[in-house]
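User: Structure please.
Assistant: Input sequence and predicted structure:
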Amino acid sequence: MQFPSFIAKRIRHNEAGSFSATVSRIGVASIAIGIAVGIIAFAVLLGFKQTIRQKIFLFGAHINISSFAVGNTYEEGPLFVKNPISEALPRIPEVLRWQAVAHKSGILKTADEIKGVVLKGVGQDYDWNTFKKSLISGKLITNKDSTSLKYGYSSEILISHKIASQLRLKSGDNVIMYSMQNPPRPRKLTVVGIYDTQMEEFDNNLIIGDISLVQRLNGWGKDSVGTYEVYLKDFEKLDEVAAVLRRTLPPSIYLQRVTSIFPQIFDWLLLLDRNTAVFLALILFVACFNMISILLVMIMERTPLIGLLKTLGSPNKQIRMVFFRVGLHMVRKGIIIGNIVGLAVCWIQYQFKVIALDPVNYYMDTVPIVFDWPIFLMVNIITIVISGLILLIPTLIISQITPIKALLFKK
């Protein structure tokens, strides 16, 4: 065993009952709290971002490509299925998938109530995997070939829980929809499912149905759609892919990024990132300040030992290494405890949903948790590196202690 390690181990074993034992526990606790708070903060932050993005991407793809329409902001002009867009998308490696949809504004009418809505028509290429999580009643619509249907379109629709409550509808009920055109064209539709995203931007007015119905109401052929919804493999490359597509699109085609459609939500997520970074920086600063103070107390309490070691010929560097190892042991112990506590709290919230939220303000009913192990590892590494550098600062005082004054020092 090396000499600094041997002395550091003896110091740790002999500090029981001393004042330095109390302050060392405070040091371990400060590091543990910093690590635990860092893990919990990142787990919650990433959970918020992932949950909100998933809800937005239910109805707002990463990139929406549509034709300019005049007079109605909820509807699009027709786009042919075979066009420069559909030819360009397969050649862009960052594109994961795309799907064709169309929108039509209208009014749902029951015996006692009416409600303005926007019908989103989807086809057989629509991806329901993420949407299934938001379905609270009934089933998804059946995407069949329209040529096999009686009227050339499916009358099945999905409505939000909020719309269902306002119109007093449930799964299996029929409702009349009047399309917003002249003259209005009523269609009898059947509610087969009810969803709840807890996001008012969608739940207030959006219903989902067959794209063939929208095509029929707009007088389009089967070769026309309203919007291409494009999803990327990496959301962080949104601006890059959007720039590539803009160079491909003709002037009559409109491209929108999801960040420009919902700027307030993404600004809020960016604010969460900044607040979390500031909060963690303050926690780490307090923990490092505590470590400096604690190590100084330990050095002052063992001033006679320092004097004895210097008298026996130990250089300042060797004595600094003794106390550095003592501090590093506290950091290591605090990191282990902090990881156990932080991960335990996250697991409890993930499994049992202990902390609830107001869906009106947070778009979700419980605090979400995401276990991102690379991020957790980064928190540990940063804490170790910064704490190790900080621990070198108080050891510099050792060079100012002379053997004679140290041996005469009284606690």
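DSSP finds 14 helices and twelve strands in the chain.
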